[in-house]
Amino acid sequence: MSSSEAKCFKRVTHCIFDNDGTIMDTENIYTNAIQNVLTPYGKKYTFELKKQQMGLSAAVASANMVRILNLPITPQEYLAKFRAELHALITDVKLLPGVKDLLLHLFEHRVPMAMATATYRDTFNIKALPHCQLLPVFRHIVCGDDPELKACKPSPDIFLLAAARFKPAPLPECCLVFEDSAQGKDAGVAAGMQVVLIPDARLPIADTKGATLVLRSMADFQPELFGLPAFDNVEKFTFG
Ligand SMILES: O=c1[nH]cc([C@@H]2O[C@H](COP(=O)(O)O)[C@@H](O)[C@H]2O)c(=O)[nH]1
Ligand SMILES: [Mg+2]
User: Fold this and answer.
1) Which residues pair with 179 in a beta bridge?
2) Would you place residue 232 in the very low, low, confident or very high pLDDT band (cuts 50, 70, 90)?
3) How far is the CA of 67 from the centre of ligand 1 (A)?
4) pLDDT tens per residue, range 165-219
5) Which reaction does this enzyme catalyse, per its entry (predicted)?
6) Closest C-alpha to 116, from 97, 143, 137
């Protein structure tokens, strides 16, 4: 993991968060749902394959899976099986460590925040149900099937769209992206934004290239590094 020392970060005013694997602890659930689809075909969902799929839209990921694993079904059939498995497993998803504290802290300090997730809106709504009280911290949530969205991650579109929907809209360089996937990190960098990457521990270091900062956990994020308000306990510690 790279450290924050000796790196020069630019001040930001807005934050844009990925959801799966960044805010919500859903990536293991995706692995289980996909493995459930693959088991009848005798296939294994390896991390090598998963790391290429994370952050892609369900339609693109489905087409990839059928092609790469040579499955005897159409991408549409795969997508339907995947959605059925997934929707049964995401009724009680948890937040990742440090997420709630950071979101409430930034919200309290009026930092404009948005979410940009590749997930389709109907799937997101199932995950969102147990978190209805927290989600209004986001000014808006852009999903992967948004009618204004042209291309999924690693294209920069979803982050540029999320930035454009703030009123007033900030420049991309004033936005800080939080991501867990290599595809999402590439999308944020292509959008001209700084990217805090909090990857799966199995992601090879080479795949983190381009990230502004790589962390093990959201709980390790220090907002003041990017000109955002520090946590109160850090202020007390620093200034007595
Ligand atoms: O193991 C996987 N994880 C995640 C995805 C895809 O990544 C999306 C989540 O992306 P993001 O974290 O950018 O919201 C999921 O909706 C799904 O389309 C996948 O295909 N396989
Ligand atoms: Mg993600």
Assistant:
1) 197
2) confident
3) 17
4) 999 999 999 999 999 999 999 999 999 999 999 999 999 999 999 999 999 999 9
5) psi-UMP + H2O = pseudouridine + phosphate
6) 143
Distance (angstroms) between ligand 1 centre and the Cα of 117 equals: 9
* Nearest CA owner, ligand 1 atom 15: 119
In three-state secondary structure terms, 112 is: coil
Residue to substitute in 16, 30, 181 for testing ligand 1 pocket (most ligand atoms within 8 angstroms of CB): 30
* 14-26+93-239 CATH, one of 3.10.20.340, 3.40.50.1000, 3.40.50.300, 3.20.20.70: 3.40.50.1000
Class of domain 27-89: mainly alpha
Atom of ligand 1 nearest to the CA of 183: 13
What pLDDT is stored for residue 69 in this prediction? 98
Domain segments of the chain as ranges: 14-26+93-239, 27-89
* Ligand 1 within 6 A of CB of 124: no
What are 133-163's pLDDT values in tens digits?
999 999 999 999 999 999 999 999 999 999 9
178 - beta bridge partners?
17, 196
* Residue of the CA atom closest to atom 3 of ligand 1: 54
pLDDT digits (tens, 9 = 90+) for 36-64: 999 999 999 999 999 999 999 999 999 99
Please give the model's pTM, rounded to 2 decimal places: 0.95
Cβ 224 vs Cβ 230: under 8 Å: yes
Give the alpha-carbon dihedral of 138, 18, 116, 231, to 10 degrees: 30
Q: Pick the residue whose CA is nearest to atom 5 on ligand 1.
A: 54
